[in-house]
Amino acid sequence: MVIPKPQPGGKTRTYVDVTECKVDYAEPTDADKLFSTANYSKIMPCIRLDKRDLQPGPMFERARA
Questions:
Q1: 33: which DSSP letter?
Q2: Domain map (residue ranges) of the chain
Q3: Cα dist. 65→16, 21, 53 in Å?
């Protein structure tokens, strides 16, 4: 991931290293926090999986910052 340096008067950007990969069904069912993303405007927390209620976590908040 390449992040440009902020310009004078511009916004300082933060980033999270990510790895795109396929996951099997067991991985998200064992997770305590989940979010889905396609791009910045499409970052959404997963609030329910099967019958478990989930809450947005710190990585979701960081990704939305």
A1: -
A2: 26-64
A3: 11, 24, 24
